[in-house]
């Protein structure tokens, strides 16, 4: 029985093992079958791909179709891949050009399918017009919204944009403004947006009451407030109530009180509004607190004026004496840096009254104690490096001309670490530096000198035995990198240089399309020296999928992409993309540009570039009305098209009428002539002018052509050509004048010039140098009068030694070289000096006059000016100037041909468009019969 049971168990075991083996044999077969079935059922083959752009103009549809086709990551003949489809949808969404993206569900049970991408372009804003918002600027209104010319328009965001505009109006005091945004269709999926603002009656501050001010009057405080409007006229209703201005006024008054010594002052405000009457009443509550009077004692090293700079109480206050404690700490640190490591600083406070007003006397008591100074500093053991160069990195230095040589605690230890770091950065190993401080016998109780010795054990300086590149792409020759990097074989190893080379390698790889590459440098020991290995992980090469521009309604795309070097299919160049961005942003017809790189985040082998542009309003009309001493009252008008024919060219008409005549110019400016990055201007003009104090006038008709090229950031070269009909006519006493000069002349001219400018601002220059020189060749085609060379040079220099002082210098030189058979030159070609632009204090063009008192020109002019411009605050500027000038080689003997000097001053007021000034110049060396000086009025700086 036992044997039978045993046999049954054996039989059962055999059957079990057989079943297991059968299952194991069937699993791979089943898995393969299931996979094949899944492949057949879930991955049908793509037979056809269609893209349907549902809306927009034909040009826009073609552009969007081109972009969408390139972004689709699926191809006919490929099996349907869900990941590739999701990537495609993500790329199309990132472009920002579609309001709806839809792909109808394909039949996944079919063997082949067709994919259809139904893409609805976003509606574009073609024009934005703001009405009714003035005095709030339209630009402020538009910037508060999502709307941009060329940008998308979404119907569901109208309410949000209305609220944004209403918020801007409330900030400007129009608390009850009503805003309506309406649109009109301008074309296929193009919208004109109209923002209509009904300001209604603004909330006005009719009364400002100041409470608690005992030291300063209400008027003085109100004059510092933007919320206050001086009631100059009986109809004044107060300024608009702007909450941000009220908050700014509170801060301004608090700052004012602290600067005047009331550092514990508090300023708060209460604004009570009556919405029915649209008025508000502002109450300012001031708690002046005591006036602080700060004095110092015991300070010999630093003056009171210097130490007051460390007092923070004048700007941050002194709540719970924290301000004083911060100031004490700052003073102590100043002394410690000067070598007074044992300096003691404390303060005493005494409260009292004076003239029934609270005062608090603060005495800052300083015990300077001993000053620790460096007598000598020495670095020993330096052989491989330059000792002088190492010394320049040390703070532990002995006394020099403008340095006392303080020995601050821990300074030698810090310098010791600095020396070790320098050696390590130069490739040295096991460098050891010690710092020994030896104090000398103290001869003066207030000074203690020390000798500091840094002892250097340089160690071994590693050399690079070999430079290896691993993992380089096959299409790049490693020799290119060997020639570019600075780490070379048989040269010393420098860690910083290896880091720089890593960046350089990444840059070179990026220029070859390997924008996802990674470079990891390794330093491998090679005996005492080392081998540098740059491990390159190139990843895949990225090519240009395409470059598209959107939002350009007027500007031609070939103009925008004129200098584009990113050609479709070429490797991506990071430098090329950066250059493209700079070139497009430099276009004068564009307000702003937003670039996108699509596909980089996904690390695709194709990268797509889009530029969303916003065009400036092409048409402009500008007028100005003013007065200038040199031409009396004037009216100027400028009109034109900033983007003529969509070519980024400026068509303009400038006209001016003034007390000395008229001038009109019609021209075209090309900012990129023949795609050579050359600025050019061609114009025709006509003018008639009778300059002040001259006995002749000039009529001119002509044309000019100018080319200008920026060679460097500061250097510009150019040439100007001219063809002109000119006629001089008499206006006053012309006794002795040759009548030949009144004949019409035909003048041909060519004037090359060079300009160097590093001036920070032409509206209000504070620093920089400007130089311009020209040599003009002139030929008279009808007469023998205008045959000469004219050389001119003008130099200006600006220097700002202090924040409120600018020194300005100007020098001018000009000379005429006549090469005609007739030595006579027409008066309208000569140089004249005197007036607001060169020698102030002299009448316009009257530096040299003849026996009849008429101005005389010369063939050579020399003039110069020095001016100090002092900022008085409040937008006022005080100029103090000295001018000098002389004219030489005059055709008629003048009675004052020598160098004339003037000195003067005046007052300028700074406006948003430049200064307006009233200046008086006084003659230093007048001759008999000459005025002692002259008053000048000008808009803008004279130089």
From TrEMBL:
It comes from the Bacteria. Residues 201-289 form the POTRA domain. It is found in: Membrane. Its main location: membrane. The keyword Transmembrane applies. Signal peptide: none annotated. One of its GO terms (cellular component) is outer membrane. This is Outer membrane protein assembly complex YaeT. It comes from Desulfotignum phosphitoxidans DSM 13687.
């Amino acid at each position: 029985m036992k044997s039978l049971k045993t046999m049954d168990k054996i039989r059962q075991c055999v059957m079990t093992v057989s079943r297991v083996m059968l299952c194991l044999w069937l699993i791979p077969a089943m898995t393969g079958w299931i996979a094949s079935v899944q492949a057949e059922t879930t991955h049908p083959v793509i037979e056809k791909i269609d893209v349907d752009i549902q809306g927009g103009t034909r040009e826009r549809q073609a552009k969007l179709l081109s972009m969408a086709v390139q972004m689709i990551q699926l191809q006919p003949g490929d099996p349907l891949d869900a990941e590739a489809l999701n990537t495609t949808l993500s790329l199309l969404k990132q472009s920002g050009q579609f309001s709806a993206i839809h792909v109808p569900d394909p039949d996944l049970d079919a063997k082949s399918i067709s994919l259809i991408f139904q893409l609805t372009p976003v509606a574009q804003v073609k024009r934005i017009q703001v009405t009714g918002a003035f005095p709030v600027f339209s630009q402020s209104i538009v910037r508060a919204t999502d709307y941009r010319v060329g940008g998308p328009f979404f119907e569901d965001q109208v309410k949000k944009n209305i609220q944004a505009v209403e918020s801007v109006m409330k900030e400007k005091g129009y608390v009850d403004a009503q805003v309506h945004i309406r649109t009109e269709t301008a074309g296929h999926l193009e919208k004109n947006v109209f923002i209509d603002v009904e300001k209604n009656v603004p909330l006005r501050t009719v009364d400002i009451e100041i409470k608690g001010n005992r030291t300063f009057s209400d008027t003085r405080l109100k004059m510092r407030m933007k919320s206050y409007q001086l009631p100059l006229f009986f109809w004044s209703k107060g300024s608009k109530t702007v909450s941000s201005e009220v908050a700014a006024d509170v801060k301004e008054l608090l700052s004012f009180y602290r600067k005047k010594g009331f550092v514990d002052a508090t300023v708060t405000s209460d604004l009570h509004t009556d919405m029915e009457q649209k008025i508000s009443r502002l109450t300012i509550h001031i708690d002046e607190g005591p006036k602080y009077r700060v004095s110092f004692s015991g300070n010999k090293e630093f003056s009171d004026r210097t130490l007051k700079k460390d007092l923070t109480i004048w700007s941050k206050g002194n709540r719970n004496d924290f301000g004083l404690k911060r100031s004490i700490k700052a003073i102590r640190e100043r002394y410690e840096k000067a070598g007074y490591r044992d300096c003691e600083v404390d303060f005493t406070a005494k409260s009292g009254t004076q003239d029934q007003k609270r005062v608090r006397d603060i005495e800052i008591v300083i015990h300077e104690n001993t000053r620790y100074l460096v007598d000598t500093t020495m670095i020993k053991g330096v052989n491989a490096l330059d000792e002088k160069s190492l010394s320049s990195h040390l703070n532990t230095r002995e006394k020099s001309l403008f340095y006392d040589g303080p020995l601050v605690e821990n300074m030698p230890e810090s310098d010791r670490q600095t020396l070790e770091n320098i050696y390590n950065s130069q490739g040295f190993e096991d460098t050891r530096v010690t710092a020994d401080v030896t104090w000398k016998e103290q001869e003066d109780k207030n000074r203690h000198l020390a000798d500091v010795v840094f002892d250097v054990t340089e160690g071994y300086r590693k050399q690079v035995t070999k430079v290896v590149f691993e993992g380089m792409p096959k299409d790049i020759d490693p020799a290119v990198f060997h020639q570019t990097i600075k780490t070379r074989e048989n040269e010393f190893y420098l860690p910083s240089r290896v880091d720089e080379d890593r960046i350089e390698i990444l840059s070179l790889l990026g220029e070859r399309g390997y924008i996802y590459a990674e470079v990891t440098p390794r330093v491998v020991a090679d005996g005492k020296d080392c081998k540098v290995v740059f491990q390159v992980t190139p990843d895949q090469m990225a090519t240009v999928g395409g470059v598209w521009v959107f939002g350009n309604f007027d500007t031609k795309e070939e103009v925008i992409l004129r200098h584009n070097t990113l050609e479709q299919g070429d490797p991506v160049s990071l430098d090329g993309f950066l250059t493209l961005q700079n070139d497009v942003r430099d276009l004068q017809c564009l307000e702003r540009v937003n670039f996108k790189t699509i596909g980089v985040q996904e690390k695709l082998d194709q990268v797509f570039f889009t530029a969303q542009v916003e065009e400036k309003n092409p048409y402009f009309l500008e007028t100005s009305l003013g007065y200038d001493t040199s031409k009396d009252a004037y009216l100027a008008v400028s009109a034109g098209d900033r983007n003529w024919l969509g070519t980024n060219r400026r068509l303009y008409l400038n006209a001016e009428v003034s007390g000395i005549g008229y001038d009109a110019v019609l021209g075209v400016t090309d900012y990129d002539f023949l795609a050579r990055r050359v600025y050019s201007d061609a114009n025709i003009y006509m003018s008639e002018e009778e300059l002040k104090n001259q006995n002749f006038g000039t009529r001119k008709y002509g044309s000019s052509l100018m080319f200008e090229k920026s060679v460097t950031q500061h250097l510009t070269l150019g040439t100007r050509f001219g063809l002109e009909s000119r006629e001089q006519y008499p206006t006053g006493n012309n006794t002795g004048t040759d009548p030949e000069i009144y004949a019409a002349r035909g003048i041909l001219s060519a004037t090359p010039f060079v300009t160097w400018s590093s001036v920070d601002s032409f509206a209000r220059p504070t620093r920089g140098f400007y130089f311009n020189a020209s040599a003009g060749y002139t030929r008279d085609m009808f007469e023998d009068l205008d045959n000469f060379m004219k050389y001119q040079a003008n130099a200006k220099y600006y220097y700002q030694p202090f924040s409120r002082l600018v020194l300005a210098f100007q020098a001018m030189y000009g000379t005429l070289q006549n090469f005609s058979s007739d030595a006579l030159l027409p008066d309208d070609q000569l140089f004249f000096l005197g007036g607001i632009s060169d020698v102030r204090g002299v009448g316009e063009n009257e530096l040299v006059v003849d026996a009849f008192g008429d101005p005389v020109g010369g063939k050579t002019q020399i003039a110069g000016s020095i001016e100090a411009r002092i900022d008085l605050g409040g937008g006022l500027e005080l100029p103090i100037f000295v001018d000098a000038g002389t004219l030489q080689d005059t055709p008629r003997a003048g009675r004052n041909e020598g160098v004339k000097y003037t000195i003067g001053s005046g007052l300028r007021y700074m406006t948003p468009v430049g200064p307006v000034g009233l200046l008086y110049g006084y003659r230093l060396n007048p001759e008999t019969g000459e005025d002692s000086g002259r008053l000048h009025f000008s808009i803008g700086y004279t130089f």
